[in-house]
Amino acid sequence: MPKNPFALLLALLGVLLILETAEADGPTVGMILPLTGPAAPFGAIVKRGVDRAVSPAHRLTVEDDACDPAKAISAFHSLRQRGSRLFLGPCCTTSMTAIAPIIKKEGLLAMNVCTGSERVWGLSGQRIFHSQMSAEEESRQNAEMMWTRGIRSVVLLYAEQEYALAHERAFRDAFKGAVVQSLSFSGSAAGQVKSLILKLKSLKFDALYIPIMEPFLLGVLTQAAKIGAKPPNVFSVFSFELPEVLAMEGINAEGVIYSYPDIPSDQPAAEYFAGTGAQLFMDAVNKCTDDTDCALQETIKSNRFDTKGFLKGKFIWKTVRGGKFVNLSARPQGEN
Length: 336
Description:
Layout: H1 5-25, E1 28-33, H2 40-53, E2 59-64, H3 69-81, E3 86-88, H4 93-106, E4 109-112, H5 119-123, E5 128-130, H6 135-148, E6 153-159, H7 162-174, E7 178-185, H8 190-201, E8 207-210, H9 214-217, H10 220-226, E9 234-236, H11 243-249, E10 257-261, H12 269-288, H13 292-301, E11 315-321, E12 324-327
Parallel strand pairs: 1-2, 1-3, 3-4, 4-5, 6-7, 6-8, 8-9, 9-10
Antiparallel strand pairs: 10-11, 11-12
């Protein structure tokens, strides 16, 4: 017989409380985001959206991949070793493409709280959802919009990433005019960007299409203006809307037209969609705990996603006017 039965009782109650708390917390959900590197500003906005949507009671473990596929795989395995079968992210398409086959093979489930390429749906065995519209759909709609605005010839400029390549392929297929040339660079090599700007000076085209934010963060428009190679028109995608872009490009960002999701919120779109995707995912997890097949079916039953696993929605267009991001249709200040 224990010397202190009361102490033993307290210890047993403590163990039961710990077990009850662990059960209430639910399964560990792993999240992979770019918290360092060139995409860190975007990753910070996404994380803010997730943090607002996910209850503190849920066990959310975060890893940084810096938009690097090798780091993403390392982060993924680290989270798996800690018991994660459910994932938010990775945010970057290159990272998501790297882990998609593992998601498929192990029967796991993920919600990319950013956007990405439609090919990820097949690579993952239809087990990775995206909380935004696809890169391909955005460029298809941009191609149509540019044609209606009288654009007949386009040069594309982008960093060589799967996300940008998805944009490039979709735009080429959808644009009724001529794609004069695709100019691309690897990593964040500013020197490569300068050589591409020199090529711009020798080309004739109606518009420059930049379907990824990295060139702006390297000051591509500012550099072009300095050598007299400023494009006649510039178009981009919704990740263009970052304060860091305006800080880097300044007056040279004026007049850039870019697609933007039509959302019922004043939040940055990346934050809004991160919160929406995280909430939909956690709703499924709350019903199914770590049963990934159950959570998969619950996510489909929400009827919020298209046949390729992307959140349903539509785009509007915005521009920079007076150093501010505004709707393209909005009248300039002082105009009746």
